[in-house]
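Researcher: Here's my situation. A collaborator sent me these components and asked whether they could plausibly form a single complex. I don't have experimental data yet, so a predicted model of the whole assembly would be a useful starting point for our discussion.
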Amino acid sequence: MALADIRQRPGVLLGAAILLHVVLISAQVNTASGLPVLQVVTFGSFAEVQRGTMALFDGLRNFWSGYVALRQVHAENDALKDELQALQVRVQQERAEAQRTDSLRQLLELRERAHLDTTAAEVIAAAASPEFRTVTIDKGTNEGLRSDMAVISPAGVVGRVILPARRASKVQLLIDRNAAAGALIERTRVQGVVEGFGDGSLRMQYVPGTADVKPGDLLVTSGIDGIYPKGFVIGTIEQVERGSGGYHQITVRPAVDFARLEEVLVVRTPQAFSGDVPEGTP
Amino acid sequence: MRAVAAAAAIVAALALQTTLAGLVIRGTAAIDLVLIVIVYIALKSGPAAGLVGGTAAGLIQDALSNPILGIGGLAKTIVGFLAGVLATQFILNGPLPRLVLLVLATVLHSAIFMGLYVLLDLRQFPDPLPSVVGQALGNGFVGVVAFQLAEWLPGFVDRRRGGRSLKR
């Protein structure tokens, strides 16, 4: 019955016969590369099937990951944002650490240069009242600090210890209204007294009106006050005016940026009119 | 019964073909007796029989003589099928139509056979036209005669037998 059906449909029979012969021939013939045609054709055909299957699965996977799995992506996005914020904080901490390290390195260099008995301290607090320009450092009598010890920084003179406690000390900044230091103009060696003015600037007093003073002149400590070692930078003369009583009225811009003070050196060496000028300082 | 006769005819053609292998034109057999038998089977039994007969005979012929099994089989399969289709569409009882059919079948067979060999870079057939034309004409004339004999012979035998019985 089936044979009769096939005979009624010779086209199908022809297709089957041609296919049989093609397969038979392909099994015996090699391609130019030496591989059997049947193998090459079979592999090539099946590779297309594999490619199609892979494309289908890729499409499904992309659909899944691009749309269906968005909820997971949202959660992952939140987690990544949190992580990013934590890392940003960490970066800021690292940057602060780097700056602190740099600052400490400068302090260490100053310490080695000055040949003074110093101890490094960290500024831990500012003044409680804006009327007084003081800071608190984290070293006290336990580290050998006493009153009237000079406090310096790589940029220049900071001030003096006015209230040492066991583990902390209060430092009067040079810009405080009640602070003063013996000073001299580096270029002309004219001496005077530098006083805080309360507004962040300094005034140099008792400089005769005949003295050679110009804006831009560098002002350093003279060492005659018995507190500050000689030769440390105080600031730069900003303005010179003729004052009353035959003295110049000189405004000085401090060398130290008191708003950014973080680490300082406390000079433990007695400065009773010492005339040592530290190496590398003006 | 007809299938057995067809198989016997194919076997006989193959046997004869192998004995006539020396009769060639430019490397190609001058007469393809197997192809003639296939065309005859297709004429008498239709495309399916022509196709099956062509497949079987071609594969056997390939196995006996050709390096690649299937090329001759494919050629004879297609020729057998098309000859059967033509036989169902046209009246091919006269010698001339059969001659034309045999010539066309031979040309088509040669085209498929040689074309596949060239296509697969297995063998070259420089200037194949004379041998193809020679084989087509040879197959045509031999085939027409053979077809006439095949159709005349059974009737002749019957008439001879009938005449003898009347004399008695």
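Model: Some features of this prediction you could bring to your collaborator: Residues 273-282 of chain A have pLDDT under 50 and may be disordered. The helical segments of chain A are 2-8, 10-28, 37-68, 70-114.
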